[in-house]
Amino acid sequence: MSQPPPIFVVHPSSGVPIYRQLVDQVEALVAGGRLRPGDTVPSVRQVAAALGVNPMTVSKAWSRLEADGVLQRDRGRGMVVAVPRDREAGSLAERKAQVRPLVDQAVVRGLQLGLTPAQLQAVMKTSLEEKLP
């Protein structure tokens, strides 16, 4: 039996704190509909073990998400995705707005490295193909 792909991926050398990477990923998964209200998120211990990070780092991320109203504690189940306060948070326009700065950064870096628009598109296509199931 094969293991499902990990839901979270962290890059320790990215310069972005690991807890912030987890917060951003949970918010993106909720906005994109991959995590829905009522879904249970993996426990602090499960995520820490899977990623090889300190459990306090994951706990900090989950606490931040709880304070922001993204997650809520459900006695007996752990942390679950909360019903969003803002129904527009997962709209297509909002999701595009969240990813745009990241794409802009990648495009600028690619141009600085001398890649052509066609080469940049090929890199994006390859990356998508590698990430999609």
Write up this protein:
With 133 residues, the protein is mostly helical. It folds into 2 domains: 18-86, Orthogonal Bundle (Arc Repressor Mutant, subunit A); 91-131, no CATH class. 53% of the residues lie in helices and 6% in strands. It contains 5 helices and 2 strands, in the order αααββαα. Strands 1-2 form a two-stranded antiparallel sheet. A hairpin with a 3-residue loop joins strand 1 (71-74) and strand 2. Helix 2 (44-51) crosses helix 3 (55-67). The longest helix is centred in the last third of the chain and has 21 residues, at 92-112. It is globular and about 55 Å long. Mean pLDDT is 87; it is low at 1-5.
CATH third-tier fold name of the largest domain: Arc Repressor Mutant, subunit A
**Helix and strand sequence:** HHHEEHH
Q: Stretches where pLDDT falls below 50 for ≥5 residues?
A: 1-5
The CATH architecture category of the largest domain equals Orthogonal Bundle
CATH class identity of the largest domain: Mainly Alpha
Please state roughly what percent of the residues sit in beta strands, choosing from under 5%, 5-15%, 15-25%, 25-35%, 35-45% or over 45%. Answer: 5-15%
- Summarize the biggest pleated sheet: 2 strands, antiparallel
Give me the count of strands.
Answer: 2
The count of helical stretches stands at 5
Number of domains: 2
End-to-end distance = 17 Å
Q: If strands are numbered along the chain, what order do they take across the biggest sheet?
A: 1-2
Mean pLDDT, all residues: 87
| Radius of gyration using CA atoms only | 17 Å
Structure classification: mainly alpha
- From the spread of the alpha carbons, the general shape counts as globular
Which percent bin holds the helix content? 40-55%
